[in-house]
Design brief:
single chain; 307 residues; D-Maltodextrin-Binding Protein, domain 2; 2 domains; 5-stranded mixed sheet
């Protein structure tokens, strides 16, 4: 990664539609207004992202929070400082798959078999009687764009968990969804921000400024007045048609499926995240109190409310 200017905050995210509040900074300066010099790192995989965070090449990961929990389980002192969204995940499969049972002896494309949305897929399959490594396999290929490409180019890949815009694009290519994971498994705290605890403690003002900038940007994304600008940004960044950009934005704004209001963390969703990890990986793992510190978020929101 290239050298960054002193005081710059390097934020890592996946190059999918959920990065829209971060992309908005490049055109509208919503983070800069809060004194946050944001530099964006778009990751190819969660392994790459976690390693960059641990090395200090990345300061904040805006991604699936289970990746932060996985780091904590591995002994890294990671803390979750903000929520974000539910994951917006569909279980997408090839057209010849009619049910979960049809995935027996088949292979799924995943980012990593042991974190985040792959764990949700494993839990959904377990509820339908299928056990990982006994009844089906998982092939790590990376982020959502790579998972969609695997589905479209390799018919041995039977399914994958996808989120916008890749889930909508998959359906346009004739693939189908077995359903939304939240409908199958209940509320889930998917996306959010996590950091190394030592960095956050040494850079509290920067963490608070980042949260304020993100909430400002998220409010802009959710505003009806920004619809045309958001659709245009999605179309440019992800090479989408106007129709697909509009459908993707609707998903992002769906209060039951998309971004959480003001990036609030769901207590119930966090419990489900930890329960999913415990159920699929074994052991009890950390409790929420050990990996969540919302003092940064509450400080940021107090200032936002006051202003």
């Amino acid at each position: 990664m290239a050298d960054m200017a002193p005081g710059a905050i390097v934020v890592s995210t996946f190059p999918n539609a959920k990065a829209l509040p971060l992309w908005a900074e490049t055109e509208h300066g919503l983070f800069a207004r809060r004194g946050c010099d944001l530099r964006l790192h778009e990751t190819g995989s969660s392994d790459e992202q976690r390693e960059a965070l641990a090395r200090g090449d990345v300061h904040i990961a805006q991604a699936a929070l289970d990746n932060g929990v996985a780091m904590a389980v591995a002994g890294e002192d990671v803390v979750i400082v903000m929520g974000g969204e539910t994951g917006m995940n569909d279980f997408v499969v090839q057209a010849d798959i009619g049910s979960f049972e049809d995935l027996r002896r088949r292979t799924l494309a995943v980012d990593s078999p042991f974190t985040a949305y792959a764990l949700l897929a494993r839990r959904a399959l377990a509820q339908n009687g299928l056990v990982y490594e006994r009844d089906y396999a998982m092939k790590p290929v990376g982020n959502g764009a790579r998972r969609l490409k695997a589905l479209l180019t390799d018919r041995t890949i039977a399914g994958a968990v996808l989120n916008p815009p890749f889930s909508a694009e998959a359906l346009m290519h004739g693939l189908k969804s077995l359903g939304r994971l939240n409908d199958m498994l209940g509320p889930y705290q998917a996306g959010g921000a996590y950091v190394m605890r030592s960095w956050a403690q040494a850079n509290r003002a920067s963490v608070v400024a980042y949260i304020q900038g993100y909430v400002d940007s998220l409010r802009w994304v959710r505003s009806a007045a920004s619809t045309k600008a958001c659709e245009s940004m999605l179309a440019r960044k992800l090479d989408l048609s106007t129709e697909l950009a509009s459908a993707t934005l609707s998903q992002l704004r769906d209060p039951s499926f998309g971004f959480s209001e003001d990036a609030a963390l769901s207590e119930e969703g966090m419990k489900n995240l930890l329960a999913t990890r415990a159920e699929t990986e074994g052991g009890c793992g950390p409790d929420a109190a050990a990996v969540v510190d919302l003092s940064y978020y509450h400080e940021a929101m107090r200032t936002l409310s006051a202003s």
